[in-house]
Every structure is written in C-alpha cells, then in structure tokens.
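### Sample
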Amino acid sequence: MRNTAKITIAVLATGALTLGLSACGSGKDSASDTSGPLIVAASPTPHAEILNYVKDNLAKDAGLDLEVKEFTDYVTPNTATEDGSVGANYFQTQPYLDDFNKKNGTHIVSVVDVHLEPLGLYSHKVDKAEGLKSGATVAVPNDTVNEGRALQLLAANGLITLKDGVGTSATPSDITENPKNLKFKELEAAQTPRSLDDVDAAVVNGNYAIEADLKPAKDSLLLESAKGNPNSNLLAVKEGQEDDPRVKKLAKLLNSPEVKKFIADKYAGAVLPSF
C-alpha cells in the first residue's frame, strides 16, 4: 500500500508539474541554466514561507533571482529535482533523502541544514498520551523514515518497545512490546492531521501540524526533542549542482541571522533553526 501510494502521487504530481512548466513556456532545464531564476520546490509550510521571506527581503540585495514552487507531497519535489524541472528543493530531512535516493535511484544531495520541525503526537480525544485506551488507533505517516520517527517517538515515551537498532526504518512489525495493544493506521503524511476526528491519536509532521493550526509546543501530547536530533530540514540539489552560484547564494541566505529571526518570530518554537 505504501509503495502504491507513492507511485500514484509521483505520477500524478509530476504530470501536473510538467503541464505547469509547459504552460509557462519554459523550455529550459532549471538546474543547468544558471543564468535564469533558481526554481525551488518546497512544502507550503514552513518551507515556502521561509523561501518567500528570503525572496521578498533578502534575495534582491544578494543578486539572486528566486522562484518558489509549492508541492504538498513528499515525492514530487525530489523527482522534479532529479529531472531538472526545478533547480533545488527544500522540504526533507537527511534520513528521508537517503532512503528516497536508495529506493528510487535518484542522485540528490544535501547543501545546507536550515530548520527542525519537531514531530508530535496529537489527539482530539485524550489530553495525555497515558490516556490512550487499550486498542486505541494511532495514525502514523506511511513513508519509511517518518513512520520510523513516529514509532521512535512513541517508544521514547514508553508507549511501545522496538527492536534494537531499527532506527528510522522501524515499522509496526518491529514492535516487541505493545502494552496498550495500540493499532496503527498508516496514512500519507499530509493526511495525518485530517484523521484526528477518526482515530484516537495521530503522529503529525511539524509542517502539517502548523498547516492544520496545531501548535506543537502547546497542543502535542508528545513532541520530539530538538537536542541531538538528526532530522533537520535541508536545502537539496541534484548531485553536481552544489556549486551553482545561485544555490550557494540561497544556502547563505537560509543560514543568515535574518532568517533565524524570522523563524523564531513567526513560529514561536514550532520550527527551530538548525544553524
């Protein structure tokens, strides 16, 4: 089910991207034409918001022509970066990128870490994680890395026990102890906050929590710790494009004091700078 969902999303969304670019009359490969604007694929929140802050406030003075394209899935930004439809993307973590490259034969590399979105457990039915009843259903993201992060969050807080060493590749089959007999509903990451009325709790990625007007620091039952967390969101490009002068300018701006202040002021702890 997980792979089928990914393939379907990739085919549909990539088709939409191709049509969109054609409609704009673009006959150039964004990644190879360094004289044109740098087109960056991004999730709407907070990635595109951060990029648009850079575009509106910092890019002109840095001599950077920046274009932001928003996508709501976790597949198309990478396929578009790989085929050159966009010059970079900003939406994912290093573990997700490594897993995506391995499974899809893509050649995308990290340029710079920008921020962390703490992943959290939310519920419309209980006020504390301990309040989940025996047999409760918990929605989790269905992509490999984010599902692993979700299960690790539950394990770190004593709700389940996982096999040693499974890390972010953990799946429900790696659960060795489940004292509450929790049941897991695997959903595309963007769907998890929308499932809160239908399940007992859901583990939601930070960006989707913000889009759903959830405040991670206030509303979550459990929240990932930022300390020592390897899941920073990063700017990425196709291998070989790291030295593109446009990419270097954007990387510097994304790690600037101005962006750090913007993140702190706008997201009040729901998004944390990684620099």
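Residues 118 and 225 are 7 Å apart (CA to CA). This sample (Lipoprotein) is used throughout the tutorial notebook.
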